[in-house]
Write a structure and sequence with these properties.
The complex is a heterodimer of chains A (319) and B (240).
Chain A: H1 2-20, E1 32-37, H2 45-58, E2 65-68, H3 79-87, H4 91-95, E3 99-102, H5 110-114, E4 127-132, E5 135-139, H6 147-159, E6 164-168, H7 184-197, E7 201-204, E8 210-213, E9 220-224, E10 241-245, E11 250-257, E12 260-267, E13 272-279, E14 299-300
Parallel strand pairs in A: 1-2, 2-3, 5-6, 6-7, 7-9
Antiparallel strand pairs in A: 1-11, 4-5, 8-9, 8-10, 11-12, 12-13, 13-14
Chain B: H1 3-16, E1 26-28, H2 71-76, H3 80-103, H4 115-132, H5 144-154, H6 160-171, H7 199-202, E2 212-217, E3 220-225, E4 230-235
Antiparallel strand pairs in B: 2-3, 3-4
Helix pairs in contact in B: 1-3, 3-4
The chains are: A alpha/beta (319), B mainly alpha (240).
Chain lengths: 319, 240
């Protein structure tokens, strides 16, 4: 009887399981496609599991680069650690010429990682790159927000024009985490620049969970610090939270097409745990003295998905 | 952001000056920037640090409290606080000059996929720097006067909500003070977390030329050469 029940449960769960593994981003031919991970450098089975899913999903969604939100290497940083905690887990992606762009976390040896070519930091602790016209990324060093970095960021953002402006760094400016919480001191310095220059999206880690936050001052924030580490019970959902989970490892797929950014967050079992899109409203042109941001991202679930799966839900399908 | 932060930054900028920030890399994803050409050089002898009073962990400094105002500055009638910060800049510049001369023949720290080469360049650079300043001692850069000035600059930022946040950050994933060698010319330990420096404290300290950085371990301040992972100087109990 128990066996029959198990079979029934498996059959009943199958459509949901398949549905959870559908690609929920449009996968348009000329879009910018990338993945996001954070706090990933453990060399653990969790990291390997996420890395394996990334490679699997890439066969359906050919992202060309990966953004790393810091803590890229926990513990030792000997040559064999770089193999164990980076080169081996992500070998299928590296072999497929997928580029990784790293930001520094508080566990990272800056001098080593800045100069480690596969991290594409070009020898710098903060840098910018443009994968395609109309989209620009900025990697910041949130461990050391000094005047030099702030001046650089102000100048680079002012010069970036009407592009999508995407920040990635380690410490979350907004967070519902019990252990760390919002990095308010960094926020005091960075947020005014983000608002002034019309930043659209901020990707961070540090908290070992996933959280999609309500847009703050017109900027969409994600925390994805659970690509190899989990701090279960640490996410205390707050007024900031749109969706979050501290019970699953995950990574994100992102796609930018025109004024819309689509995201799909996937756990270590290959199941979609969150999905939606962010629409950029209007165009931003550099203007001296701008104090408000005309670009207002609007996060919403994609039509294919009625809403994010709640991790505590009993009816959640599992693989 | 407090107005006092901005005023302090403006004062420090005026006092310390410094070269303009170098342009950072801006590049297309498909076009990695070229790396500089390699040069070769011989590695220096392994470093054998002299015994240090702080060898068994940081101790409370027994030095008498330093005067806040440099006597020379007082005699000349210049802004004493600016004079102390100007003195700090001179000492930092002197270190940077020694450093530049020391590493000119060392293998350059440059981008590579081979971590062994990065480590070797880093170690070679560190050895050359140590060899160039074998008699360097605690207080050469962070003199008692400068340390006292730093304490004075940081103290307001350690009060109130921002102060509480700053102290939380200093505890967050930070290494224990006992695990870090408070020793001039020592290596910052491999694998030890690098504590985040609270942004409000950082903006109240002088801007340093790269690759120098301030690090705060527990209550103590380290001046770190980040490329070489060498502790240039340290001062104890800057955080009250």
């Amino acid at each position: 009887m128990r066996r029959l029940l198990t079979v029934f449960v498996l059959i009943a769960g199958l459509p949901f399981s398949i549905a959870g593994q559908e690609l929920r981003v449009p996968n348009k031919p000329d879009s910018v496609k990338f993945a996001v991970i954070g706090d990933a450098g453990t060399g653990s089975s969790a990291q390997k599991g996420i890395a394996k899913e990334m490679a699997t999903w890439r066969t359906r969604f050919p992202f060309t680069f990966v953004v790393m939100a810091g803590d890229n290497m926990y513990g030792g940083e000997r040559p064999r650690d770089f193999q164990k905690k980076f080169e081996i887990p992500y070998k299928p992606l590296l072999d497929a010429n997928v580029k990784f762009y790293a930001a520094l976390g508080n566990h990272d040896d800056a001098a080593l990682q800045r100069n480690y070519k596969p991290f594409n930091m070009n020898g710098e602790r903060f840098y910018t790159f443009k994968p395609k016209d109309g989209v620009r990324f900025f990697a910041l060093d949130s461990n050391y927000v000094d005047k030099t970095q702030l001046e650089w960021l102000d100048k680079q953002l002012a010069a970036s024009g009407s592009e999508w402006k995407i920040m990635f760094f380690h410490h979350p400016l907004y967070s519902s985490g019990e252990t760390h919480g919002s990095a308010e001191l960094q926020r005091d310095l960075l947020e005014p620049l983000f608002v002034k220059h019309g930043v659209n999206l901020v990707l961070t880690g540090h908290e070992h969970f996933y959280e999609r936050l309500k847009p703050q001052k017109g900027i969409q924030y994600f925390i994805i610090g659970n690509s190899a580490k989990l701090r279960k019970g640490d996410l205390s959902k707050s007024g900031l939270t749109l969706f979050g989970t501290d019970r699953e490892y995950s990574f994100m797929l992102m796609e930018i097409s025109g004024d819309e950014l689509f995201f799909q967050t996937i756990n270590e079992r290959g199941q979609t745990i969150d999905t939606g899109s962010v629409r950029r409203v209007g165009k931003v042109e550099p203007a001296p003295g701008r104090t408000t941001q005309p670009v207002v991202p609007q996060a919403r679930p994609t039509p294919a998905q009625p809403g994010p799966r709640q991790p505590e839900s009993k009816s959640t399908p599992s693989k | 952001m407090k107005v006092s932060h901005l005023l302090t930054v403006a004062l420090l900028t005026a006092a310390c000056g410094g070269d303009p920030a170098p342009d950072r890399s801006t590049y297309e994803a498909s076009e990695p920037a070229a790396t500089p050409a390699a040069t070769t050089g011989e590695a220096a002898e392994p470093f054998s640090p002299a015994p240090d009073p702080a060898e068994k962990g940081p101790q409370i400094s027994s030095a008498p409290p330093a005067p806040l105002v440099a006597p020379e500055a007082r005699a000349k009638g210049v802004n004493p606080h600016a004079a102390i910060l100007a003195d700090f800049k001179e000492r930092v510049d002197a270190y940077m000059k020694v450093r530049k001369d020391a590493i000119k023949d060392a293998p350059p720290l440059k981008e590579t996929s081979d971590v062994t080469k990065i480590k070797a360049a880093q170690d070679g650079m560190a050895a050359q720097i140590r060899a160039a300043r074998p008699n360097a001692k605690q207080g050469d850069v962070l003199t008692p006067e400068i340390a006292a000035q730093f304490r004075r600059l940081l103290y307001p930022e350690l009060k109130g909500d921002d102060g509480r946040d700053a102290k939380e950050i200093l505890k967050d994933d930070a290494p224990s003070a006992a695990s870090i060698p408070f020793k001039v010319n020592a290596k910052y330990p491999d694998g030890a977390p690098v504590p985040t420096v609270p942004a409000n404290l950082l903006l109240n300290l002088p801007t340093l030329p790269e690759p120098l950085q301030f690090k705060i371990i527990g209550r103590h301040l380290i001046l770190l050469d980040e490329d070489a992972d060498v502790i240039v100087d340290y001062t104890l109990n800057v955080i009250r």
